[in-house]
Specification:
With 191 residues, the chain is mainly alpha-helical. 70% of the residues lie in helices and 4% in strands. It has one domain (2-189). α3 packs across α4 (78-104), α5 crosses α8 (171-189) and α6 (144-155) crosses α8. The longest helix has 27 residues, at 78-104.
């Protein structure tokens, strides 16, 4: 536990240095966050349809490129960084699905299996990634915090505690909002 906290403090320090314009901090940061980015990307891509062509490494690299373009972010901590990474992964995957759909001009949509641990209330169902993105946009218009929680948990793979840290709310609030958001999204997607 102590080693994990030390690593988290080290990452937070590097993020602050990077925010202050120290390029060498970014170079030192990548090896420390790569494994976690890989875990997030692999976790998400495991839920992709069979035969999905975007690989974990490609998703990580695209996410990393989006993150290094974030020059004006005042990084709060490690969890904030991975929250922003989750948002970047969501955008990349939605853009990928849209591009694939456009290529096929009406062909099969990108589908994601939606298991009980994420959004479905029970069983496993495949959903359209674009449909999920649109539903999340509607949810954000009604309750931005719930949409942020879904994005961090589903796309970023953050735990209840990490999500609470990023959003500066209690884990109990995250649990409650997560449950509500899953139910609302399930109804929206299965209409």
């Amino acid at each position: 536990m102590e080693q994990s906290q030390q690593k988290s403090k080290e990452i937070t320090g590097m993020l602050h240095d990077w925010s202050d314009g120290k390029q060498e901090a970014l170079d030192a940061l990548l090896p420390l966050v790569y494994d976690e980015l890989h875990r997030q990307a692999a976790q998400f891509l495991r839920r992709e349809r069979i035969g999905h062509t975007l690989q974990t490494t490609a998703l990580i690299h695209e996410t990393y490129l989006k993150l290094i373009d974030q020059r004006h972010v005042n990084w709060q901590n490690r969890a904030h960084f991975f929250g922003i990474a989750a948002q970047a992964m969501r955008r990349i995957l939605v853009d990928y699905a849209k591009a694939r759909h456009r290529e096929k001009r009406g062909g099969a949509d990108e589908n994601l299996p939606l298991d009980a641990a994420t959004l479905a209330v029970s069983g496993e169902k495949e959903i359209d990634l674009e449909e999920l993105d649109q539903a999340l946009t509607r949810l954000a218009a009604m309750d931005e915090r719930q949409a942020n929680i879904v994005e961090l948990r589903y796309f970023g793979g953050l735990s209840i505690e990490e999500t609470a840290e990023v959003l500066c709310i209690s884990p109990a609030t995250v649990k409650s909002d997560w449950k509500s958001a899953k139910a609302w999204l399930y109804q929206e997607i299965t209409k």
